[in-house]
Amino acid sequence: MDIQKRLLPDLTDVLKKRYTILHHIAATGVVGRRALATHLELTERVLRAEVDFLKEQGLLETESSGMKLSEAGRKLLEDIEPIVKELLGLTDLEETLRARFSLRQVVIVPGDCDQSELTKKELGRAGAAALRKYASKGDVVAVAGGSTLAEVAHHLTPSAQMKGSLFVPARGGLGESVELQANSIASTMAKKTGGEYRLLHVPDHLGEEAYVSLMQDPNILEIVEVIRSARIVVHGIGDAMVMARRRKVDQRTIAELTAEGALAEAFGYYFDRSGKVVHKMPTVGLRLEDIQATETVIAVAGGKSKGEAIAAVMKFGHEDVLVIDEAAAVELLHHL
Amino acid sequence: MDIQKRLLPDLTDVLKKRYTILHHIAATGVVGRRALATHLELTERVLRAEVDFLKEQGLLETESSGMKLSEAGRKLLEDIEPIVKELLGLTDLEETLRARFSLRQVVIVPGDCDQSELTKKELGRAGAAALRKYASKGDVVAVAGGSTLAEVAHHLTPSAQMKGSLFVPARGGLGESVELQANSIASTMAKKTGGEYRLLHVPDHLGEEAYVSLMQDPNILEIVEVIRSARIVVHGIGDAMVMARRRKVDQRTIAELTAEGALAEAFGYYFDRSGKVVHKMPTVGLRLEDIQATETVIAVAGGKSKGEAIAAVMKFGHEDVLVIDEAAAVELLHHL
DNA sequence: CATATGCGGGACATTTTGAGTCCCGGTGAT
DNA sequence: ATCACCGGGACTCAAAATGTCCCGCATATG
Question: Which of A115, A297, A315, B46 is the most buried if burial means most Cβ atoms within 10 Å?
Fold first, then answer.
């Protein structure tokens, strides 16, 4: 079934549509085309094409008083229910989450990144597909760091509409290993898609003084300007403590984070359980107000262990597209 | 799986196409688009659309030297093989039989009419769909009798292109019960589709003298002319002995049929194992030369027990479209 | 080293399909 | 008798699929 979905991705949509139509007719008994179209929020013409098809298949019958299921249709509806349920589990979950957080789109890939490397790759592929979908020519794309983002970058392919894109890191260095840093990922993405890239080389742990002088450097200032004008932001989501440790922040900061209830991390900011920003890493780049102004913010993350963190960032509420795996989706639902 | 096929009939085609492409690439290793298109008998553009899709799905990769499967593609190909085999079993069978008997189309519905009434209905539906497909406006459609044809008639629906059709019986009365006679079926089909019909009332067991005088009647002559000009013929296929008994032919004739090796019956003619006509029922209507001249001859039959009879009529070799069930198809294959 | 071949990918005209919208005759309830 | 709603036909326009050709590039071949 999953395999089939792989070779026929829109199978799900069509199946759902037809199932819904049959289901509604079954529920109503006899119903007219226009009434049904209104109920299902389909245009008359589309509904009609489907009805013609279903009639051709002998699943429903038309009379002057309206349409009703045939015997075969009734039987099919029974038989197909479990199939649809399975097939649409994720689809429904996607829609639930999308509505819950007022997102533009939610993509759920089957599996658990924590369990399977393959799911992580799949997540990367889905993330890349999402980016491809929302990118248009000449966009500035700001990307964060992390292993998930690296996976996304790895699955990007050259495409016409991203040829002119400019990839920039969302923030300066954040203490990650080189290949997982935003800079590396931005450059990988650019190479993979055939786009341009600009880097932001800012050391970690800047003092106030150094920071001020750095921000007066015209080169730095210019690239920061570009970053802040990004039309698309792609970032991962991490567990606050895991991230803090990975970035080797000092004990005092960790204690602070704990005290503040930091749970999740994304693009250098730390969020508590309610989605409030409780801490930020001291480096330059995208600010919160930039995130809010960005047209499309894409979050990619996966793994059951990340569920809570994802929930926190979602409550922050400035994401547009969420790409997660099944395990995270289920977990996320538990944290509502 | 069968259920799914019911709601998404062209799923099979697409799946087969994509599977074939992946399969070929796997077999070749690295192959160019044009070379592949030639091999698969696809136009370059279509192949390309598919390749783009498969690439999007991460199933294959392109290099300057050509395309090859990705790791995921290789795995998918393995996983999907049983699915495709099951799903395409009938499709392949259709194609095998189509090629073997040089037919225009073979339709196989799953199941066995002998076992299940539902399969018989399904066969009727498929027969009706085939007739609908090949009928065009104003056609003369000659239909034979039998329970299968009655089922076909039952599943016809009003349609624009058959509104002007003229349904006629292929032959005069052949001793069947009224509702299974060609006359009844022609009239049912006309009523179901919204077409016209003309009947041919000729009693059974005509003497030579009566036959001659009947054929001088201008009314009879005219309708016979119409029948012989039919552009489409739809008929069932029966076991010779079963039909003979059902038509209550006398012992002497049955003995003759046995002696001649009659195996199958269709539109009033009896065929032996090799497809040679060994006997004809004495009534008026379509002659063999008319069948040969007919643009589209559609045979509808099903049931494991009919396999041999169908094989015999197929060897006769003037059919264009064959609609059978799975059991008959498998049996038919055994009799090659 | 030069040339030819076959590659993927871009581009474009044309055909085919899909979709939105209206209208019509029929039918059943009021 | 009237009216609302039914299915189905028809038309237009937009979008997608398709056939076709070309280009720059890598590689193999002479």
Answer: A297
